[in-house]
Amino acid sequence: MYFRKFFKFQVLKPLDVKTKFYNAETDEVFLEAQIQNITTSPMFMEKVSLEPSIMYNVAELNSVNQAGECVTTFGSRTYLQPMDTRQYLYCLKPKKEFAEKAGIIKGVTVIGKLDIVWKTNLGERGRLQTSQLQRMAPGYGDVRLSLEAIPDTVILEEPFHITCKITNCSSERTMDLVLEMCNTNSIHWCGISGRQLGKLHPSSSLCLALTLLSSVQGLQSVSGLRLTDTFLKRTYEYDDIAQVCVVSSATKVES
Description:
The protein is 4% helix and 55% strand. It is built from two helices and 22 strands. The strands form six sheets. Strands 3, 7, 9, 10 and 11 form a five-stranded antiparallel β-sheet that branches. A four-stranded antiparallel β-sheet has the order 1-2-8-4. It is elongated and about 95 Å long.
């Protein structure tokens, strides 16, 4: 004679994982993972890594370089006490073959998944692997303007150079662009305003070197770029593109 009996065991979740995404002005994405120990005993965090999707390369930002050695920011003992939370930071950058195609990074993209391995106080190993993490890529409209190069400090009333990248985010429409440069109270553009940039095909980009100078000291905002699509008679305005620190020539020499 046989009889069947079922036993119910309450299984508690050992870790609470929360994620946040931060989109940089470039195509880089910063992922913050908050991991909390919600058990009643400490645990040893053996490994916390991010396995990126095929679109991204990942760099861990959880260590610092001290005397030529890579030292973790959490110290030599990676124990996580009960109800304590630890934050891990990762930087993801699109691979070159995907970054060159503006349309691919649009909408919802898969970032990757977290792989967490820990040990309890009795040496028992546990592992948690999240599902694929997704983020909503920021919308840039039809035309995106980003900075490829800009100095952080410039000298008052002396020209400096920046490099802009203009991308046609449309997947099916060619644009014929005209660049206008409008001076502000502190920023003055050098060059011809209203020049033709030519045709920009879908999902393609062009780099543009521009020269400007500042007439006011302090932290100044680079503003005043206008792109006009002559086909649709539509103008795109770009203000507060970046900030530069403007100092006098005497201050620059002393530093």
